[in-house]
Amino acid sequence: MTTPDSLDARAGATRQLARGDVPVLQRASLREQVRQALEEFIVFGRLAPGEHLAEESLAELLGVSRQPVREALQSLSAAGFVDLRAGRGAFVHEPTAREAREVFHVRALLESDSCRLAAQNIDDDGARRLEVIYAEGHEASQRHDDPRRLIELNRTFHRTMTEIGGNRVSIALVADLERRAGWYLATIITNRAPSSWAEHREILDAVVARDADRARDLMLNHIDHSRDLLEFTGQ
Amino acid sequence: MTTPDSLDARAGATRQLARGDVPVLQRASLREQVRQALEEFIVFGRLAPGEHLAEESLAELLGVSRQPVREALQSLSAAGFVDLRAGRGAFVHEPTAREAREVFHVRALLESDSCRLAAQNIDDDGARRLEVIYAEGHEASQRHDDPRRLIELNRTFHRTMTEIGGNRVSIALVADLERRAGWYLATIITNRAPSSWAEHREILDAVVARDADRARDLMLNHIDHSRDLLEFTGQ
DNA sequence: TTTCTCCATACTGTATGCAGTATGGATGAC
DNA sequence: GTCATCCATACTGCATACAGTATGGAGAAA
Questions:
Q1: Is A34 on the interface with B (CB under 8 A)?
Q2: Which tens digit of pLDDT belongs to each residue from A25-81?
Q3: Domain A25-92 annotated CATH 1.10.357.10
Q4: Which CATH superfamily includes the segment(s) B97-231?
Q5: Is A232 exposed, middle or buried (0-12, 13-18, 19+ CB in 10 A)?
Q6: Which nucleotide is nearest to B86 (CA to C1')?
Q7: Higher-confidence residue: B26 or A109?
Q8: In chain A, which residue's Cα lies nearest the Cα of B177?
Q9: Does at least one atom of strand D sit less than 7 Å from the CB of A29?
Q10: Do residues A162 and A171 lie in contact, with contact meaning Cβ atoms separated by under 8 Å?
């Protein structure tokens, strides 16, 4: 990812036949690839808050034309990663602690509700999936695996829980909020606490026991804990 | 709005100096104007669910080039009004009753929480603003004003309440959800009940009395009522 | 020195061009 | 009649072109 090398040599859209019986694998559009690349650049600090994102130079950097870059920037704007100033173009958004708190608050609302729903909907298959993720995450956190992987596992646990909740609108919103939250944590917080798999264990137990209210409350507290990490940074 | 007449004769962006001391009024970009126009066409049924939105013909209809149309379609896709199928282009989204229920559920979560926050934050100015809106809305609903206006006033009440709550992330999400909800009500429901200003009155009283929990619960029930309208349509 | 004006520069916003792909109907095989 | 194949058509996705605007600094005026 350090050498962007242009996004892809084979830019003329082709398809790949999957080995299994999954019918066809859609190659992502250029604008989607650009979007993901830019989001990574922003999240990992290679593009700093406030920085001006000139379409032409990004296009050159990524080996594409301005068009897909432009569309990617608009998408990132809707997701809160960049700001579009009329006539000035795109700038990396400068998150504030207030905004971070607000995102965590909304996330807590939506995820705790999804957790409540999950406790109502859970079936054996869902319970198994959660157990697998828990086992993996718990072990990885014990071993102090690479932080990138820990973040990924943590996110997988939350995402899966929300998916089991089953409200697709909520699922989509939470996915966005999680990505923003990850950025804030990486940007604002210097030293991130490892995600608490002890709390995940409690939540999981409540969900499997179909104790909806308890599951909801536990998830609420759980996310509030991560939000509390933000409080140290003031303003 | 029936004769799109091209969006604007003076397409070369110019600015207008406001009469008052509001400094400058930014003319919206073409893509934003197109976005709004298309959203109206969709919400008011001029573009029907499932319809293929070919960029060229829309561009011609609106008197602009494909480019701003394309960007507007992508924005509308993010907002849930159109679906983009890779290689096929944009189609007006076909809402389902399930999806509508989900939107109302999330809306209820976010707005009831904002209402709780509003009860904590409210000041004299906020209370005055709410009272004015209530008075206007109550009167209009008594008079059985034009439905379009009733919907507008209803939305204003909710938007103002959310704004007083003060969580900007929530404000932005709720604004999106309200627009979708409005579409669903117009599309799915044949006969929409007038918004209940009696319930608004109760909510407003609780907020002004700073009774946060009661305000929250009332708003939750209030939105559930409108959601219940959806239940008649099955699936 | 300070402030205003003007202009060169860089970049956005919109339009147009072009290559490649999805689709549906015509055609032919069975 | 049914099914597979092929091709014309329409439209997308990306690239490029062009016009117009925001900005910052040079130079003039005070």
A1: no
A2: 456 888 999 999 999 999 988 999 999 999 999 999 999 999 999 999 999 999 999
A3: no
A4: GntR ligand-binding domain-like (1.20.120.530)
A5: exposed
A6: D12
A7: A109
A8: A169
A9: yes
A10: yes
